[in-house]
Amino acid sequence: MSESVSERVAANVRAEAARLKMSQRDIATALGVSQSSANRRWLGVTPIDVEELYALSAAFSIPVSALLPPDFPVQAQSA
């Protein structure tokens, strides 16, 4: 079974948080959510939305693109 985009983003968040020695509580504070909500995002169960990606990139002082998986193809949807 392959990893979803949400799981890959969550893994990138975990890796960056570990690099900066940030806890799930720090992530919850950056996102303005409870620790249990942050935990669901941390695990990739709840997808991290666009606003949250920007909040995390600011907390980590990195570009949003650093949290996104580079190898997932984007498919345009027809109207």
Shape: globular
| Helix/strand order | HHHH
Number of helices: 4
Structural class: mainly alpha
Write up this protein:
With 79 residues, the chain is an all-alpha fold. The chain has a single domain, classed as Orthogonal Bundle (434 Repressor (Amino-terminal Domain)), CATH 1.10.260. It has helices at residues 5-19, 24-31, 35-43, 50-60.
Write the layout of secondary structure elements.
Elements: H1 5-19, H2 24-31, H3 35-43, H4 50-60
Helix pairs in contact: 2-3
Provide a concise account of the structure shown:
By secondary structure, the chain is mostly helical. It has helices at residues 5-19, 24-31, 35-43, 50-60.
Features of the shown structure:
globular, mainly alpha, single chain, 4 helices, 79 residues, 434 Repressor (Amino-terminal Domain)
